[in-house]
Amino acid sequence: MDGKADLHLHTAYSDGVLTPHNLLVQAHRARLTIISITDHDNTGALDEAIPEAALMGIEVIAGVELSTTVDAQDIHLLGYFFDHRNSTLQDYLKVFRAERRKRAELIVMRLHDLKIPLSFDSVLARAGKGSIGRPHIAAAMVEDGLIDSYQEAFYRYLGFGKPAYEQKYQISPVEAIRLVAEAGGLSFVAHPGSSIDERVLLGLIKEGVDGIEVVHPSHNEERTAYYRGIADEYFLLASGGSDFHGGRKNDDDTLGRFTVTADAVSVMRQRLR
Ligand code: AMP
Ligand code: ZN
Ligand code: FE
Ligand code: FE
């Protein structure tokens, strides 16, 4: 089967910029035939995208990106092929989003302590109906003229260990893996190259992840081959995608460049049975 699949995309339902419709238009232009929308803690884009995508000849796989924690390290897991109407999963996602909102309020309070008068309303306006995250806070800081650049917001205030840093609601990878499995899906370790050391990766494999995201903009050729090797060695699936958020710096030509084959997606589907 021919076709290119990008299994890591964000929309305005989390910290992406594009609506599901506009994402589909760009995906179509990039000749993707299979996509997964993997918003953080949110599957709201799926109901909008699935019927429209079908008309364009694009298949949309249910997806979500969950944040988990191991030894204070942020480990992102991607869930795929689950039933996005599963009520247990949706109840959890609601809790995660509510916790994100509380965390954003705490971050804004920390910024006030640091004499950065960012209004929470301005952050809420940025987030719209999406899961609130630090990208919204950084963007609101730039928009309100409180800082010069998005990157600066992270390295001065919002990044890990910086003065306005606040931890996210903590769940372990096993809990996330179970949540996805009980909704009928598969879990993948997201972009291991950007944050995960080998010991932690092997721990995740032991805990039952189904696959590894081998293709990602943060992986060079060597890293990609390395993770593909680990996936083969442990009989795991290999996924990949662009982690496109739409409209950000360096995002312009990412769509279509970080993909896996339609065959790789078929192999994943076989694992579901
Ligand atoms: P959150 O979900 O609120 O923890 O935000 C995580 C998102 O913030 C990541 O997916 C990145 O898009 C962005 N991010 C995290 N750290 C940095 C950083 N140091 N510089 C730029 N963006 C970052
Ligand atoms: Zn994101
Ligand atoms: Fe991520
Ligand atoms: Fe992502």
Could you please describe the fold and organization of this structure?
- The protein is an alpha/beta fold and 273 residues long.
- Helix content is 44%, strand content 16%.
- The protein is built from ten helices and eight strands.
- It has helices at residues 20-29, 44-56, 87-113, 120-127, 134-143, 150-158, 173-182, 198-206, 221-233, 262-271; strands at residues 4-9, 34-37, 59-70, 73-80, 186-189, 211-215, 237-240, 260-261.
- Strands 7-6-5-4-3-2-1-8 form an eight-stranded mixed β-sheet, with helices on both faces.
- Helix 8 (198-206) links the parallel strand 5 and strand 6.
- Helix 1 runs parallel beside helix 2 (44-56) and helix 4 packs across helix 5 (134-143).
- Residues 65, 76, 190-191 line the site of one fe (iii) ion.
Multimeric state: single chain
**Distinct ligand kinds:** adenosine monophosphate, zinc ion, fe (iii) ion
Low-pLDDT sequence parts: none
Task: Determine Rg (CA atoms, Å).
Answer: 18 Å
**N/C terminus separation:** 20 Å
What sort of overall outline do the alpha carbons produce when their principal axes are compared? globular
Question: What percent of residues adopt helix (DSSP H or I)?
Answer: 40-55%
Structural class by helix and strand composition: alpha/beta
Number of helices: 10
Give a short account of the largest sheet. Answer: 8 strands, mixed
In sequence order, what are the helices and strands, one letter per element?
Answer: EHEHEEHHHHHEHEHEEH
For the biggest β-sheet, the strand order reads: 7-6-5-4-3-2-1-8
Strand portion, in percent? 15-25%
Q: Write down how many β-strands occur, each being a DSSP E stretch of 2 or more residues.
A: 8
